[in-house]
Design brief:
By secondary structure, the protein is mainly alpha-helical. It has 16 helices and no strands.
Length: 403
């Protein structure tokens, strides 16, 4: 084998080895779909196609999500099959029945407060059910295939990812924390060397990108917490701790972006003393080191409590910066002084996130996942209460006591 051929082969192999998780997921999805096809055909004649389609739609990168997707498929198929049969009975098979099915499915999904997972599945699965030759037996035939496909997807999704939801949450939190520390380190070096608007703009752009990663971390932390509630081998206390760590890194990243914005405004004005530059650079360097050390500790043991000296050093760096700025206030532009003083608050909040001492981390409810991502936007219990309330309002006062 020539050297050129060998290099080409190595590059080709590297394309897949660098994407091991993705390769694993598509292989699992392919095997799951094939298995669903085979089981569907064994259980009932020509039941493999619908089972494979539903399996491909339901299998996800985690067991938790696949269970929810599978439940959404089942709910959607059950409703869709009923609506499809009703449409055929009213309009017979044809384009009117198809259009009416989609409209009725959308109305039913809206009325039941289904989330995106199930509301999308309702018309899709209804159209699968409404295929040529629809009858009551055919509808049940395809409903059973849907159940098979969703079940196979749930089983195989366990093998889609080598890590548990908690492990994935830890990896994402550590990755984002490391990126935030690196950005603070680069800002520290840039401020010490003398930065311009272009440098500060680059930092601000990277800070915004870091903030955009927050929703995925929150979703993963929520998945880990939800997974721990019903999976027997998951540790719920670890999931809760990771959730708090996720909120802490979210607060940290927001402060890092705010620091980048402050430095950008400073570069636009172009007024900053040498003494202020040195103190700001030192403070940012201290914060960068503290965040990096925190990430290393967390990766060693998720339950470990951050060393107090890390947050204390950040607070002390902020206090030193404030003292230096106040001492040089007479020689500084007042607007610039106020802007630089705001960095002290940012550092204080980073320190609070490091030792998790701020009430903002644990005593304030963090928004749950968007309602549209759930199978049911509103719980069945809440929906029943609302329905009962509406009925009671329309019933004469003398009869309401019976409701």
């Amino acid at each position: 084998m020539s050297s050129a051929t060998r290099r080409t082969f190595q590059r080709t192999v590297k394309l897949f080895t660098d994407r091991k998780i993705w390769v694993r997921q598509i292989i699992v999805a392919a095997v799951a779909a094939a298995t669903a096809w085979e089981i569907g055909d064994l259980v009932q004649k020509k039941g493999g196609l619908v089972a494979a389609i539903v399996c491909s739609l339901s299998v996800r990168i985690s067991l938790h999500k696949s269970v929810r997707e599978g439940f959404g498929q089942i709910v959607g198929t059950a409703i869709g099959a009923g609506v499809a049969l009703l449409s055929i009975w009213l309009f017979h098979f044809g384009f009117i029945a198809v259009g009416a099915t989609v409209i009725l499915c959308s109305v039913v999904a809206r009325g039941l407060h289904l989330g995106e997972v199930a509301s999308v599945n309702v018309p899709v699965t209804a159209l699968i059910v409404i295929g040529p030759g629809l009858s009551e037996s055919t509808a049940w035939h395809r409903l059973l295939s849907t159940l098979i496909g969703a079940g196979v997807a749930m089983v195989f999704s366990y093998f889609s990812h080598p890590n548990t939801p908690a492990d994935r949450a830890l990896d994402q939190i550590a990755s984002l924390g490391t990126k935030a520390a690196q950005l603070l380190g680069e800002m520290s070096e840039g401020v010490a060397a003398g930065f311009n608007q272009e440098d500060a703009g680059s930092w601000l752009a990277r800070g915004r990108l870091l903030v955009e990663e927050i929703p995925s971390i929150r979703a993963q932390a929520l998945e880990a917490r939800g997974f721990a509630k019903w999976f027997p081998t998951a540790e719920q206390d670890v999931a809760e701790e990771l959730y708090t760590r996720g909120v802490a890194v979210e607060h940290t990243v927001v402060q890092v972006r705010t620091i980048a914005r402050t430095l950008f405004d400073t570069a636009v004005d172009g007024v900053i003393t040498d003494g202020a530059q040195r103190q700001i650079a030192q403070a940012l360097s201290t914060a960068s080191y503290a965040i990096s050390a925190k990430v290393e500790q967390m990766q060693e043991d998720v339950n470990i409590v951050s060393e107090d000296f890390l947050s204390d050093e950040v607070r002390q760096a902020g206090a030193n910066l404030a003292e230096s700025l106040i001492d040089g206030a007479d020689d500084s532009d007042h607007e610039q002084l106020v802007r630089n003083i705001s960095l002290v608050t940012n550092l204080e909040r980073i320190a609070d996130s490091l030792d998790e001492s701020s009430p903002a981390l644990k005593e304030v409810d963090t928004p749950d996942e968007p309602a549209g991502n759930r199978v049911l936007k509103v719980s069945p219990i809440e929906q029943t209460k609302r329905l009962n309330s509406r009925i009671k309002r329309r019933v004469p006062a003398k009869l309401r006591k019976y409701f």
